[in-house]
């Protein structure tokens, strides 16, 4: 079976209302169509690469191809899990968690997006919290880092709400111009102190060696 070779396909993270997992082909198509409806307001760009401004059909195709690309490139010393977020069985966005040399660094970073029609319901915070549960409780991470543009207060608010500490400023690029970035760091201790979302995990054990996360 395919899952015997790509064990992350069996990974599940669940909260009281969300499920994070890899999608089926039809679910991925639905997700791509959701992205084409919009994932942020026209006057705000949350990404360094403005892929979200592609015209509808190209944007949908990009979401699908990026998902396949990320999945095909997973290896123990470098991986990115594009976990799709589901509410009542419907895909509503993507919560990515990624790491390089995880066996040594035990550090993860993350990116995410949420369909516009699902924003403003606290889903963004809950899906990041679910990802952190996977990272710390499931994979044995020691810290998580995040970066957000100062012009994207929603992302900064999520980080602060979940216990990330400010960890310096940086300079990025947004739509061809310099954009200031806020860096954040979340230690295991801070995560444990700020946990407010209960989550359960399924299918983690077969993924540990695949992701360089075997327990010492």
UniProtKB/TrEMBL annotation:
Protein name in the entry: GNAT family N-acetyltransferase
Gene3D superfamilies attached to this UniProt entry: 3.40.630.30
Organism encoding this protein: Tenggerimyces flavus
The N-acetyltransferase domain, residue ranges: 17-164
């Amino acid at each position: 079976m395919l899952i015997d070779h790509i064990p992350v396909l069996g990974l599940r993270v669940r909260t009281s209302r969300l499920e994070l997992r890899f999608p089926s082909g039809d679910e991925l198509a639905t997700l791509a169509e959701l992205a084409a409806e919009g994932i942020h307001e026209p006057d705000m760009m949350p990404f360094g690469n403005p892929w979200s401004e592609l015209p509808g059909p190209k944007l949908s195709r990009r979401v699908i191809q990026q998902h396949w690309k990320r999945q095909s490139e997973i290896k123990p010393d470098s991986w990115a899990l594009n976990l799709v977020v589901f509410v009542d069985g419907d895909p509503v966005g993507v919560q990515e968690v990624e790491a390089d040399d995880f066996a040594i660094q035990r550090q993860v970073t993350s990116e995410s997006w949420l369909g516009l029609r699902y924003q403003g319901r606290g889903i963004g915070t809950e899906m990041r919290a679910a990802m952190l549960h996977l990272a710390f409780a499931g994979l044995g991470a020691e810290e998580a880092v995040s970066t957000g543009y100062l012009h994207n207060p929603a992302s900064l608010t999520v980080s602060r709400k979940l216990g990330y500490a400010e960890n310096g400023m940086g300079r990025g690029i947004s739509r061809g111009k310099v954009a200031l970035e806020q860096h954040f760091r979340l230690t295991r201790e801070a995560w444990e102190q700020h946990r407010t979302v209960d989550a359960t995990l399924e299918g983690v054990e077969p993924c540990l060696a695949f992701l360089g996360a075997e327990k010492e």
